């Protein structure tokens, strides 16, 4: 961990999407390289950070997690304030969580800065046998909406690092 004066940029990123899609686990995987069997252990935490070097700049990724407010669609505008990036997560085994992505995009349009960089994440790619949302459909949707897209698994760790790094790079490109 670096001292504050050694950091070149702080990038605030919000993680959004329906309840139980794996938001908290993705965040834990990226910031601690861990998968917690008891997800509730992180309830109440506002954000987690990870510092890394990107394009020779020291960047602190400050990643905000909900404390379950998404269940009631009660995320306050303070959550989105100052966010440069968003991870919008759905579960590839739950059709409804993908159908709700449009609602989350509306929520972003209403509360976040216009220039926010959005990465759509189809989580739980380890559950291939239970897949109900095809990669092609999600890719096409993401392209239409101007979102970056990746499938990932917080459980296996597959693509998690790559997706977060891609988002950070894209943010770096627009600041
Ligand atoms: P959140 O409500 O979106 O924050 O979701 P959580 O991170 O709390 O995860 C919800 C449930 O899905 C928990 O039981 C997790 O163990 C499980 N889960 C999260 N990510 C994955 C994943 O990539 N694969 C599988 N198989 N289960 C996952
Ligand atoms: Mg959570």
UniProtKB/TrEMBL annotation:
Lineage per the UniProt record: Eukaryota, Viridiplantae, Streptophyta, Embryophyta, Tracheophyta
Domain of life: Eukaryota
GO cellular component: endosome; Golgi apparatus
Coiled-coil intervals, chain numbering: none
Protein name, per record: (wild Malaysian banana) hypothetical protein
One MF term in the entry's GO annotations: GTP binding
Family: Belongs to the small GTPase superfamily. Rab family.
């Amino acid at each position: 961990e670096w001292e504050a004066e050694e950091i070149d940029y702080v990038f605030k990123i919000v993680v959004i999407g329906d309840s139980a899609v794996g938001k908290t686990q993705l965040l834990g995987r990226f910031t601690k390289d861990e998968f917690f069997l008891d997800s509730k252990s992180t309830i109440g935490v506002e954000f987690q950070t990870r510092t890394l070097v990107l394009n020779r700049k020291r960047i602190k990724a400050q990643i905000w997690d909900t404390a379950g407010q998404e269940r009631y669609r009660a995320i306050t505008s303070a959550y989105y304030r100052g966010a440069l990036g968003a991870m919008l997560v759905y579960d590839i085994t739950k059709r409804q969580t993908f159908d709700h992505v449009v609602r989350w995009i509306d929520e972003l349009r209403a509360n976040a800065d216009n220039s926010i960089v959005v990465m759509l994440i189809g989580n739980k790619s380890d559950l291939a046998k239970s897949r109900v949302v095809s990669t092609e459909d999600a890719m096409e949707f993401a392209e239409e909406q101007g979102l970056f897209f990746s499938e990932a698994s917080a459980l296996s760790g597959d693509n998690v690092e790559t997706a977060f790094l891609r988002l950070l790079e894209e943010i770096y490109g627009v600041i």
